[in-house]
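User: Please fill in residues for this 86-position structure.
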């Protein structure tokens, strides 16, 4: 599957270097969204050392907009992690 990243300019350079990324017109397996505002990264989580992820809410929103399989993953995430007390 495709891997999705958010990055600033410095993070993009690191990803390109470490993962040896190159731009292609189609058939990508890595998508990097260059952030104009770092606000998206204010509520990140670090489930394992060095693995920084968007918050469950942002991840849910991203998955919900990613198409059919993304919708399934979003629904699973909502059931497992996004439970509000009644």
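Assistant: Residues filled in for all 86 positions:
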């Amino acid at each position: 599957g495709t891997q999705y990243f958010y990055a600033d300019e410095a993070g993009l350079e690191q990803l390109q270097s470490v993962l040896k990324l190159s731009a292609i017109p189609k058939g990508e397996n890595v998508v990097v969204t260059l952030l104009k505002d770092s606000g998206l990264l204010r509520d990140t989580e670090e489930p394992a050392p060095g693995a920084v992820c968007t918050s469950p809410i942002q991840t849910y929103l991203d998955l919900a907009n990613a198409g059919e399989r993304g919708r399934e993953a979003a629904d699973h995430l909502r059931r497992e992690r996004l439970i509000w007390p009644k």
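For context: Residues 68-81 form the longest helix (14 residues).
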